[in-house]
């Protein structure tokens, strides 16, 4: 099946039979000369000769060079895009003519047929592709499918009513490949992004590298997945999955940004206040008293700075602790709704 061109390919044996009274003939024995010299045989040989003359030919098998001289229906596939006959090593055709005028005609074909697909549940989709067989000369009451159950799709035009039969092929996709190549790797990437919550809040390079690599890897995977699919105006199941995984990975990166900002903003603010206070005290005093003031003012400044810093760090750690539980629970609930919706 090809999604960009909206078609599918298959190889079939097209077998047709009809009755042509012009081709009727009388059955004839396999060996007409077997009984001419029956007196020269013993009793056993006479019995064998009698059995031989009892075998009659009631059908003829035509060579491929003679098939074009026999009338056959103008059957064609209405939704065919292109097709070909198989001619290796000889033309794959068979025609039998029976004594009552019945003709059996079989050929091997490889075809590409159109099929309008709906990919909203891709890769868990099920497609219904038609195989439409028609004729532009035969009346719909004569044209029937005897082996496969065909539904009538007779076309009524200005020139008359033409025969048409259609069979629907129900195709279900095997999604094991997508589980191994898309779903399981993306789950591992999302879980890898949660390692950020267990790292120390001061391990800024490690947390930045892990978060960015997770986002970039998930983005590359989603782009590669969509590149093999046609551009449609609706959302597919695999788009929902990749978008949700990318959202979880990006949220983990945002959580790190919030924790980092929370721990560092207050620290910078207190450092600036301390620097301004020490600079003011130094300018108003002489150098010796300034040094003394700096030494005396250092301790209360540190005590005033440590107290809000401790609170900020505790708040950042609590955000990490909450994320360790909230992210896996949210991702598990998303998986529950996703698989229940698209697999049922």
From TrEMBL:
Protein origin, superkingdom: Eukaryota
Keyword Cell membrane annotated: yes
Pfam family, one: Neur_chan_memb
Primary location: membrane
Domain Neurotransmitter-gated ion-channel transmembrane, residue spans: 182-305
PROSITE patterns reported in the protein's UniProt record: NEUROTR_ION_CHANNEL (PS00236)
Residues covered by region (Disordered): 284-315
Alphabetical UniProt keywords: Cell membrane, Ion channel, Ion transport, Membrane, Signal, Transmembrane, Transmembrane helix, Transport
Location of the protein in the cell: Cell membrane; Membrane
Signal peptide from the UniProt entry: none
Membrane topology: Multi-pass membrane protein
A molecular function (GO) term: transmembrane signaling receptor activity
Residue stretches making up the Neurotransmitter-gated ion-channel ligand-binding domain: 5-137
GO cellular component: plasma membrane
InterPro entries tied to this protein: GABAA/Glycine_rcpt, Neur_chan_lig-bd, Neur_chan_lig-bd_sf, Neur_channel, Neuro-gated_channel_TM_sf, Neuro_actylchol_rec, Neurotrans-gated_channel_TM, Neurotransmitter_ion_chnl_CS
Keyword Magnesium in record: no
Chain coiled-coil ranges: none
Membrane-crossing residue ranges in chain numbering: 175-198, 210-229, 241-261, 322-341
Family note: Belongs to the ligand-gated ion channel (TC 1.A.9) family.
Protein name: Neurotransmitter-gated ion-channel transmembrane domain-containing protein
Biological source species: Elysia chlorotica (Eastern emerald elysia)
